[in-house]
Input
Amino acid sequence: MITYTWGISRLECAPAENGLTNVVKIIHWIFAGKDENGTSAAIGNSYPLSIPSPESFTDYSTLTEETVIGWLESSLDVGYLQTVLADEIASQYNPPITSLPLPWIKVEEPVIVEATEEVVVTEEPIAEEVVVTEEPVVTEEPATKTLDTFKIL
Output
């Protein structure tokens, strides 16, 4: 059994039209189906609305998701959308077409190396720290500078 759900992602509106304000012109929707195993598919599209009459106009601030979904369900072929989603879910279990590797191209199998020996890491004691400092060498000859002495503390 497949459960179907609607989602409204955006409403595009005209700020003013036919004496009305914030008139919904385009509904961006998603229709999804999910079976009992969690396999799912979805269709998304947009649907343009005609200019409403002042008598049938619903103020934007009072719109609910159910109202907008009702507009879609009264205008779209919901049975067809359900069939498309059911076919897409079924094809995920048994794909009608699959891509296979080209038979003339040799694909090498990955080499799997199995470890046969256990590696043992031991800690060796750390030797006393040796600090090396550099004493500056001052010479009369500015052309060359050399490092003459290291002092070990």
DSSP finds two helices and five strands in the chain. The longest strand covers residues 2-17. The two ends are 81 Å apart (CA to CA). Helices lie at 65-75, 78-93.
